[in-house]
């Protein structure tokens, strides 16, 4: 079970998210036969961040909403990414913090062996801080889960 060197799903999720010109990244993702979507969300509520990412993934065909294991895998990837954004405590509004995030979701098989199946990666980048303009700092998170 070896990861393909150029198929690191987390790396591609972060590159897609941070790229100023996404055309090259999207071409690479298409070449790998993976699915992707991007979006933005801002909130003081973690459940709204989760809902925005889940909605985008469903609308863009990244996951099938009627297949529980796919929603479940996405949920865990989102929570892992949020854990990075919030430094291990997935709390936002309850501790008077707000986030403004861009996100990327990728789905594909990063392994040489096709039997390993699909994996999903969620990357988040943006700001977190007190709900006062100018009282925030940059943050980033990445979550990866098997489907």
UniProtKB/TrEMBL annotation:
One of its GO terms (molecular function) is mRNA binding. The keyword RNA-binding applies. One of its GO terms (biological process) is positive regulation of gene expression. It comes from the Bacteria. Keywords: Activator, Histidine metabolism, RNA-binding, Transcription, Transcription regulation. It holds the Pfam family HutP. Antiterminator that binds to cis-acting regulatory sequences on the mRNA in the presence of histidine, thereby suppressing transcription termination and activating the hut operon for histidine utilization. Homohexamer. Belongs to the HutP family. This is Hut operon positive regulatory protein. It comes from Lysinibacillus composti. The lineage of its organism: Bacteria, Bacillati, Bacillota, Bacilli, Bacillales. The gene is hutP.
């Amino acid at each position: 079970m070896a990861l393909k060197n150029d198929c690191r799903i987390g790396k591609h999720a972060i590159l897609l998210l941070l790229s100023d010109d996404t055309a090259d990244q999207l071409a690479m993702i298409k070449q790998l036969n993976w699915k992707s979507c991007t979006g933005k969300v801002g909130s003081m509520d973690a459940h709204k961040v989760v809902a925005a990412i889940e909605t985008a993934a469903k609308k863009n065909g990244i996951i099938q909403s009627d297949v529980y294991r796919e929603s479940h895998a996405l949920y865990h990837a989102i929570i892992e990414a949020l854990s990075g954004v919030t430094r291990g405590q997935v709390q936002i509004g309850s501790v008077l913090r707000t986030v403004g995030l861009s996100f990327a979701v990728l789905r594909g098989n990063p392994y040489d062996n096709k039997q390993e199946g699909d994996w999903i990666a969620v990357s988040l980048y943006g700001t977190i801080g007190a709900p006062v303009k100018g009282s925030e700092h940059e943050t980033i998170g990445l979550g990866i889960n098997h489907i």
